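Dear H.,

Thanks for agreeing to be a second pair of eyes. The structure we're designing against is below in token form, covering all 414 positions.
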């Protein structure tokens, strides 16, 4: 098959799309505005979690309830700068409408299946790349610091068991057995054996090198200005280096996807959700198992020589404006759960910030557009970009090959 496919965006979604399209024997080119060595995007600074345990979409009654309360705290990881969100009021109304139990229950099986299939693909990829991605299947601890928080996690675990996810309720003693090298001051935790993690930077580096060696052409420093379309078809993309044509186009530009789609008179309901991360030396925190502090909304992933902290949801936040007060709150809340952790000031850390693409349904947008049959969209993965990267790439490849993915694609459309 001599079809030429242009993938817009060299993040974790775009590269997995390129990977599976390349595996299918298609001619693939990737267009990326950043430098080849740039590693400051969301695909690099995240916690690398692969999470079948996260089967509840972001738009849910629980998130709506806790999120609204957090909005009014200056130390909360959730922040809604009003001036930057006036133009997104319709998005928030859609989010509220989507946050009902009926819609959530309908989405749960699909979101779980996407994550579990993606984890299987990571296992296969780790064999292919001799585990250059540092893939590990160690599970995930959902740790609660309060009785109420633990009760909520226990209820969620019941739903997990219905899906076939194995969970284990751990008290302080059991947590110590799992984590003998560090004291964890929590009420209890649910252990999800289903989950894994990678070192995102290592995985991205391997993907780019592998694709380049296997015929995928990369166009770095290439900014897409607009789509050129005619008679219900995308005929090319106008870039700073000229017009580029292809048979099919995949829009995988993360939080910038909506802006680009608008040039083709398409409305994609995606806004940016800014998050933070930072690494601390492993010697300061001898954690073995990835862990999430459920009330504080802080994720911690142990890598070989460091532990990565990830948190924050600033709706329509902007890069370059670091809110140290909120980051200090992340540190302080974590230190309550890990009393041996050295006291640290936020302004002394090297802090990563990135913009994650968020949809009002809490589900990613994956599939062909109705208006242009040769334009596919793969965006809106929120905090699950890494987790859902491989399965998204596989689905996009199947659609371009004329195959039918084994998922409820109506839930992933817009």
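And this is the sequence the design step returned. I haven't edited it by hand at all.
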């Amino acid at each position: 098959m001599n079809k030429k496919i242009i993938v817009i965006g060299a993040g974790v979604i775009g590269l997995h799309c390129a990977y599976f399209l390349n595996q299918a024997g298609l001619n693939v080119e990737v267009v990326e505005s950043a430098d080849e060595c740039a590693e400051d995007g969301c695909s690099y600074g995240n916690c690398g979690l692969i999470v079948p345990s996260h089967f509840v979409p972001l738009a849910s009654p629980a998130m709506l309830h806790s999120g609204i309360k957090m909005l009014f705290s200056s130390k909360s990881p959730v922040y809604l700068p009003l001036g930057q969100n006036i133009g997104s009021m319709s998005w928030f109304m859609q989010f509220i409408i989507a946050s009902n139990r009926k819609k959530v229950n309908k989405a749960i099986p699909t979101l779980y299946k996407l994550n579990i299939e993606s984890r299987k693909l990571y296992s296969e990829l780790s064999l292919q790349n001799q585990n250059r991605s540092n893939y590990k299947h160690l599970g995930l601890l959902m740790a609660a610091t309060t009785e109420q928080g633990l009760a909520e996690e226990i209820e969620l675990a019941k739903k997990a068991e219905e899906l076939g996810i194995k969970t284990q309720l751990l008290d302080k003693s059991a947590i110590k057995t799992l984590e003998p090298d560090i004291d964890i001051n929590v009420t209890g935790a649910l252990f999800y054996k289903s989950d894994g993690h990678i070192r995102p930077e290592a995985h991205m580096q391997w993907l780019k090198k592998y694709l380049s060696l296997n015929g995928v052409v990369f166009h770095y420093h290439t900014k897409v200005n607009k789509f050129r379309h005619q008679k219900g078809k995308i005929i090319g993309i106008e870039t700073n280096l000229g017009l580029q044509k292809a048979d099919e186009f995949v829009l995988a530009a993360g939080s910038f996807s909506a802006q680009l789609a608008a040039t083709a008179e398409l409305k994609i309901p995606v806004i940016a959700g800014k998050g933070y991360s930072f690494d601390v030396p492993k010697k300061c925190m001898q954690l073995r198992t990835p862990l999430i502090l459920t009330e504080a909304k802080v994720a911690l992933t142990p890598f070989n020589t460091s532990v990565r902290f990830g948190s924050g949801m600033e709706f329509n936040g902007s890069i370059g404006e670091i809110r140290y007060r909120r980051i200090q709150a992340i540190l302080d809340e974590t230190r309550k759960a890990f009393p041996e952790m050295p006291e640290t000031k936020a302004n002394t850390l090297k802090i990563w910030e990135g913009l994650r693409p968020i949809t009002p349904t809490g589900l990613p947008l994956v599939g062909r557009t109705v208006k242009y049959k040769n334009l596919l969209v793969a965006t809106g993965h929120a905090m699950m970009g890494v987790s859902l990267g491989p399965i998204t790439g596989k689905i996009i490849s199947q659609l371009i090959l004329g195959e039918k993915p084994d998922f409820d694609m109506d839930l992933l459309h817009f």
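Two observations from my side: Residues 101-128 form the longest helix (28 residues). The chain is about 35% helix and 25% strand.

Warmly,
E.
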